[in-house]
Amino acid sequence: MGLRPLHFWLERVRVARFVEAYCCVVALIVACAPSLHAQVHDESGDWHSLPPASEPSDGGFTTSDDGNVPLSQVPQLTSRSSASQKLYLNFVGSDLFNWGTFSPHITPAYSTDLDTTTFSPSEISNIQEVWARVTEKFSPFNIDVTTINPGESHFVPQDSLNVVIGGNGSWYPLVAGGVAGVGSYYNGDSSTHNTVFVFPKNLGNGFPKYVGEASAHEAGHAFGLQHQSTYNGPTKTAEYNPGTYPGIGPGLGTGYKSPVMGLSYYSDRGIWWDGSSSQQQSNGSPIPQSDLPILASNLNAFGYRADDHGSTPASADPMFFSGGAVSASGVIETTDDKDYYSFRTGGGQVNLNIKAARWGSTVIGMLDTKAELFTAQGALVATYSNVAAPGSTSLDELISITLDPGDYLLAVESQGNYGDIGQYTIDGFIPPLAVPEPATVVLMAVGSMGLFAFRRRRDRPRICGARAQ
Fold this sequence. Notes:
Blueprint: H1 6-13, E1 25-32, E2 35-42, E3 48-50, E4 69-70, E5 86-90, E6 118-119, H2 121-138, E7 144-146, E8 160-165, E9 178-180, E10 195-198, H3 208-222, E11 228-232, E12 235-238, E13 257-259, E14 269-271, E15 274-280, E16 286-290, H4 291-295, E17 317-318, E18 320-322, E19 325-332, E20 338-345, E21 348-356, E22 358-359, E23 362-363, E24 369-375, E25 380-384, E26 397-403, E27 406-414, E28 422-429, E29 440-447, E30 450-457, E31 461-463
Parallel strand pairs: 5-7, 5-8, 8-10, 13-14, 17-20
Antiparallel strand pairs: 1-2, 3-9, 4-6, 9-10, 11-12, 11-15, 15-16, 18-19, 19-28, 20-27, 21-26, 21-28, 22-23, 24-25, 24-27, 29-30, 30-31
């Protein structure tokens, strides 16, 4: 598609402005194979739109399956039900008539086929995956990512954010992956109803990876984040920073990372970033933006979640055992957080897998894990630090070691790079302590019927003799 004159774009976005707002639009064209897509960024800070995404290599379109369910049966998912503030992923549609100076009217439910009145089994699976991906992005924070509608009365500042996921946004002047007002979660602008929009029809026809990244991106805008951009001196070279990811299309490896607030569709690892915002000072130099402090600020009021496991050896949580099989999970909230676990082994081969967040077998995690093994007295036994490099396929750590009988501590932590935070799981096997047989006491007795032996165990008495001849 060719470049259009500036007056064309100005006319297209004229309706997007508040009456008193200064109109300043930068039109950017970027390659998103297999075709070019126009992106418009509103530099005055009212609206930020995300570019659309190209079709995934395996195609995004699906046909309706048997076993469809009504929209009322959308999966009821919650990541942190105890949190009072909610990030509501709204897959069932919206009838919001006015939003800012726009008129969305009816936004259909999320759909990858032609039926927007029911959910097919594949759409249900996609919804669950989108929720899992957005949950990972906000797992360090004290906010509940949910598909349960908190109610219209909760879509007010510092309470709940409505992320409407449906349709193609035909009411918006440009083809976009989503749109949000910066700071709209807390700034008290009632015209936006604490609502942002994601347009799955422009995201590989609802491809869950793209929809998840776009949902986190638009929520990030509502929570006060600008785009992460790149510059050459005072010249902006890209509105959407692609991070270290070198190409178009998913699947090059988890070692590549991109800013959630940049272009993270195609990178397997989208993380919160410390870089240059899309906003510039009067001299043209970019305004720095560190995403995490803004998300956790008092403006949003949800902050970081409380540490879920002991952060010192003295406060270590016992690791759960079941016949030697180990299971545990947690969240690294900040890059200096450590989660300590204690365990006791009878000695032998210990095998533990520490894994970043997954959807099935697909890595969706932000956290690049690290682990340290200590004796109970605090002596370091081993460090496991597989730093994810570009092109690698693992954010995980594998512990395989022979240990003497005794008590040990395991610390799970971040590699310490910016954005290395999020969920993890632990599974594997630790040889349990040998359990001795209960003690046995044999009593001999002589009765009128003969000689009997009584064996008494700790648990219960048992007659194990025979009548004498």
